[in-house]
Specification:
- This protein is α/β, with parallel strands linked by helices and 278 residues long.
- It has 2 domains: 3-170, NAD(P)-binding Rossmann-like Domain (Rossmann fold); 174-274, 6-phosphogluconate dehydrogenase C-terminal like domain (6-phosphogluconate dehydrogenase C-terminal fold), CATH 1.10.3660.10.
- Helices cover 49% and strands 13% of the residues.
- It has helices at residues 11-22, 35-43, 53-59, 69-79, 97-102, 151-162, 172-198, 210-215, 223-232, 234-253, 259-274; strands at 3-7, 28-32, 49-50, 62-65, 88-91, 110-116, 137-141, 166-169.
- It has an 8-stranded mixed β-sheet with strand order 3-2-1-4-5-6-7-8, sandwiched between helices.
- Helix 5 (97-102) links the parallel strand 5 and strand 6.
- Helix 7 crosses helix 10 (234-253).
- The longest helix has 27 residues, at 172-198.
- The protein is globular, with a radius of gyration of 21 Å.
- The two termini are 41 Å apart.
- 34% of the residues are buried.
């Protein structure tokens, strides 16, 4: 793998480039995107040089699409004109079904869907971190099991191991339903709470503790990142929201009953399990 092209050298794309370098990658890393982003990425040592999409696609052994979902969907067919037949194209999109539906337009080389569950509320290449993927789940969504065993895919998966990612194989549909609960719902819950409290400015902020800061951290995430996610996973998110609203309504009904004990215990069990405490 002599040349890697990062399409979208922001937090995720930039972190992937830095992680490759830290893991021993010696080849070229090209960056595709806006001039401002690429200038900063080059100055930070994230990429070796900027390149237009046509050149990057023609030269890269691995194309890593870290743009917003709709831009990834639009880019996949465009790559057909330039990409090398022996290249691997992969993505880091937060929903997979829409991207996998667009992937068949790319016929000249292999596409392998992916999603590193390693983001944060921060954006931009200045927050890129070579350790961002270490110990984090990295979902792969092949169309068939054989797609994981091609030479390029095996090489890419070897690099995922080297950067410390924990690989998990799912279908696109499985992925989108799960992340609706485990990623998209927490974001919307945090945003809803913060938006509610923003309308209640008569409540003094001094009368709050770390809990409020912790639960509204995700509300710092911008809509320009989340708009594509919500639009491309609306059905699964609606299901998750309906389940959450029912849980909240049940808590409202149980507020003065002993049933709340069981709900707190169940919540604590999950929180311990999530943190690896059994």
């Amino acid at each position: 793998m002599d040349t890697v092209a990062i399409l979208g050298a922001g937090l995720i794309g930039g972190s992937f480039a830095l992680a490759l370098r830290k893991a021993g990658y010696q080849g070229r890393i090209l960056g595709v995107g806006s001039a401002e982003t690429l200038d900063r990425a080059q100055a930070l040592g994230v990429i070796d040089e900027p390149a237009p999409l046509e050149r990057a696609a023609a030269e890269a052994d691995l194309l890593y699409l870290a743009w917003p979902i709709r831009r990834i969907v639009d880019t996949l067919p465009a790559l057909e004109a330039w990409v090398r037949p022996d290249a691997l194209v992969t993505d880091a999109g937060s929903t997979k079904s829409a991207i996998l539906r667009a992937a068949p337009a790319l016929t000249r080389c292999q596409f392998l869907g992916g999603h590193p569950l390693a983001g944060s509320e921060h954006r931009g290449v200045r927050h890129a971190d070579a350790e961002l993927f270490r110990g984090r789940t990295y979902v792969l969504t092949p169309e068939t099991p054989a797609d994981l065993e091609t030479p390029r895919a095996r090489q890419f998966r070897d690099w995922l191991d080297r950067i410390g990612a924990v690989q998990l194989v799912l279908t696109a549909e499985q992925h989108d339903r799960v992340v609706a609960y485990t990623s998209h719902l927490p974001q919307l819950a945090s945003t809803a709470l913060a938006a509610l409290l923003e309308t209640r400015q008569e409540l003094p902020l001094q009368v709050s503790g770390p809990a409020l800061r912790d639960t509204t951290r995700l509300a710092l995430s911008p809509y320009e990142v989340w708009g594509d996610i919500l639009a491309t996973n609306a059905e699964a998110i609606e299901e998750a929201l309906a389940a959450y609203l029912e849980a909240l309504d049940q808590m409202r009904r149980d507020l003065r009953s002993d049933q709340m004990t069981g709900r707190f215990e169940a919540g604590a069990r999950f929180a311990r399990r999530l943190r690896g405490a059994g």
